[in-house]
């Protein structure tokens, strides 16, 4: 069994796969997307008088920051309700040397997020731009290593991901990835696991 650690997979990595920046993807959507003119008009209406290129760049950077949420956080948040995991957390909390492996059956997790960007000029709020995110994770063959009352690692398994990022009624990005293999173990920060 490999003990290789994997890189952090974030909502941004999933939704913006293949793009070097959010600006690149947002700009491409606004240059060629079927609703490009409508999206530009909505942005211009939300922040009248601001140059569109500058607005797009600022909004893009803020959205990228807002999407810097580890997928592991979403998974762990959903798993905290699993009875077997709760029992393992309690068992290992009481015994500092105990380690429990908790296999999870194949399951799906749906998650919705509403990151937003506030447009503020000279201290006056002009608009709040909301970018709803819908995410569906299909998880198979995952084993959690529980130690000292916390999830220490996500071991083995695969995750398939589908997601959308919208602005108003417009789909900016849509993706379907998978399966993504967890080759060794995905370490979980203590704050995530608590």
Structure report:
- By secondary structure, the chain is α+β, with helices and mostly antiparallel strands.
- It has one domain.
- The chain has seven helices and ten strands.
- The strands form three sheets. A four-stranded antiparallel beta sheet has the order 1-6-7-10.
- β8 and β9 form a beta hairpin.
- The radius of gyration is 20 Å and the shape is elongated.
- The N terminus is likely disordered.
Draw up the topology in text.
Blueprint: H1 11-15, H2 22-32, H3 36-46, H4 52-66, H5 71-79, H6 83-94, E1 99-103, E2 107-113, E3 116-121, E4 124-130, E5 133-140, E6 143-147, E7 150-155, E8 158-167, E9 170-181, E10 185-187, H7 190-193
Antiparallel strand pairs: 1-6, 2-5, 3-4, 5-8, 6-7, 7-10, 8-9
Unreliable stretches: 1-6
Count of helices? 7
Strand arrangement within the widest β-sheet reads 1-6-7-10
* Count of distinct structural domains: 1
Order of helices and strands: HHHHHHEEEEEEEEEEH
Round the Cα radius of gyration to an integer and report it: 20 Å
Oligomer: single chain
Helical amount among residues, as a percent range? 25-40%
What is the number of strand segments? 10
Question: What is the CA-CA span between the terminal residues?
Answer: 26 Å
Question: If you average the pLDDT, what whole number results?
Answer: 81
Percent of residues in beta strands? 35-45%
> What is the structural class?
alpha+beta
């Amino acid at each position: 069994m490999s003990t290789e650690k994997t890189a952090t997979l974030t909502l941004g990595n999933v939704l913006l796969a293949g793009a070097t920046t959010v600006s690149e993807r947002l700009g491409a959507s606004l240059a060629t997307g079927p609703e490009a003119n409508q999206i530009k008009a909505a942005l211009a209406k939300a922040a009248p008088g601001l140059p569109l290129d500058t607005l797009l760049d600022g909004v893009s950077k803020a959205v990228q920051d807002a999407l810097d949420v580890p997928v592991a956080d979403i998974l762990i948040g959903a798993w905290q309700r699993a009875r077997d995991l709760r029992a393992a957390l309690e068992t290992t909390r009481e015994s500092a040397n105990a380690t429990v492996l908790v296999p999870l059956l194949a399951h799906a997790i749906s998650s919705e997020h509403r990151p937003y960007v506030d447009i503020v000029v000279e201290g006056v709020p002009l608009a709040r731009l909301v970018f709803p995110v819908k995410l569906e994770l299909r998880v198979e063959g995952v084993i959690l290593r529980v130690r000292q009352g916390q999830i220490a690692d996500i071991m083995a398994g695969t995750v398939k991901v589908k997601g959308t990022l919208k602005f108003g009624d417009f789909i900016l990005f849509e993706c379907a990835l998978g399966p993504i293999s967890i080759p060794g173990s995905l370490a979980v920060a203590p704050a995530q696991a608590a």
